[in-house]
């Protein structure tokens, strides 16, 4: 399966990229997606995760075609 | 119910006036209009702010804004809601966000307007990066709490 990965704001700058893709044969959680996409960087403790534009926990299982985004706490308004 | 992510500066008063004038079906039905405008300060956490860049997650930001408006419409009897939020480069004194609510009576409007801005700040994926005078930049790490040292 193929997962589309997005990084925003300070995480994007820290990792040096805004997007990537993860290919996998077996089951994957959102945390596994981070581990494969982030080039060995540990996930910062305050990282927020969204799967298909809805907030999700790190243990959330992802499916083929999902969009998984990682970003720091939001600061709008 | 309208939400908009805008890339250029806007006049909150003019937007409010124009939107309200276009609410044809609601004319005569609302007795309360409540609006909140968030404006960029020229200081934050003891430092001067020269400019700010606002980033968002296209698609998810709009989805979350629509969700908080729908929730407010379920919790209170509202005639309409409007949210306009800036992204891109902003200068001090430029508006960041306009939240407006229309209802028959004021209590719902006050409560719903507060709810919308607080939920937006908690959930809508926007990120602020401050540009400081010596051209160094810093990501804002968290929003000020809804109540705290700034309130009495």
In words, what does this structure look like?
The complex is a heterodimer of chains A (about 80) and B (about 150). Chain A is an alpha+beta fold. Helices cover about 20% and strands about 35% of the residues of chain A. In chain A, the strands form two sheets. Chain A has a five-stranded mixed beta sheet. The longest helix of chain A is centred in the middle third of the chain and has 8 residues. The model of chain A has no long low-confidence stretch (mean pLDDT about 95). The N and C termini of chain B lie far apart (about 35 Å). In chain B, α2 packs antiparallel against α3. With about 150 residues, chain B is an alpha+beta fold. The model of chain B has no long low-confidence stretch (mean pLDDT about 95). The relative contact order of chain B is 0.25. At the A-B interface, loops of A face β5, α2, α3 and β9 of B.
In short:
The complex is a heterodimer of chains A (77) and B (152). Chain A has 77 residues and is α+β, with helices and mostly antiparallel strands. Chain A has helices at residues 9-15, 30-37; strands at 2-7, 19-23, 28-29, 48-51, 54-56, 61-62, 67-71.
Largest interface: A-B, 17 and 29 residues
Overall structural class of chain A, as computed from helix and strand content, comes to alpha+beta
Query: Which whole number gives the mean pLDDT of chain A?
Result: 97
SSE order of chain A, one letter for each helix or strand:
EHEEHEEEE
State the separation between the terminal residues of chain B, measured CA to CA: 33 Å
How much helix, percentage-wise, in residues of chain B?
A: 25-40%
Shape of chain A: globular
Query: Low-confidence parts of chain B, pLDDT < 50 over ≥5 residues?
Result: none
Question: Structural class per helix/strand content of chain B?
Answer: alpha+beta
* Proportion in helices of chain A: 10-25%
What strand line-up does the widest sheet of chain A have? 2-1-7-4-5
């Amino acid at each position: 399966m193929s997962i589309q990965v997005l990084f925003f704001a300070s995480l994007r700058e820290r990792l040096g990229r805004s997007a990537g893709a993860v290919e996998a044969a077996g089951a994957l959680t959102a945390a596994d997606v981070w581990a494969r996409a982030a080039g060995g960087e540990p996930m910062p403790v305050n990282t927020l995760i969204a799967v298909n534009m809805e907030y999700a926990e790190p243990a959330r299982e992802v499916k083929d075609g999902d969009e998984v985004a990682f970003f720091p706490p939001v600061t709008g308004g | 119910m309208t939400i908009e992510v805008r890339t250029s500066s806007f006049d909150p008063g003019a937007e409010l006036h124009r939107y309200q004038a276009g609410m044809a079906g609601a004319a005569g039905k609302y007795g309360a209009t409540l609006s909140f405008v968030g404006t960029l300060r020229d200081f934050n956490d003891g430092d001067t702010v020269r400019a700010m860049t606002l980033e968002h997650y296209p698609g998810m930001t709009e989805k979350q804004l629509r969700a908080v408006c729908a929730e407010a419409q379920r919790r209170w009897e509202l005639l309409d809601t409007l949210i306009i939020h800036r992204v891109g480069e902003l200068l001090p004194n430029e508006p960041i966000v306009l939240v407006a609510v229309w209802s028959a009576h004021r209590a719902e409007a006050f409560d719903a307007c507060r709810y919308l801005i607080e939920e937006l700040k908690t959930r809508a994926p926007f990120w602020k990066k401050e540009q400081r005078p010596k051209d160094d930049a810093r990501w804002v790490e968290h929003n000020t709490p809804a109540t705290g040292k700034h309130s009495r």
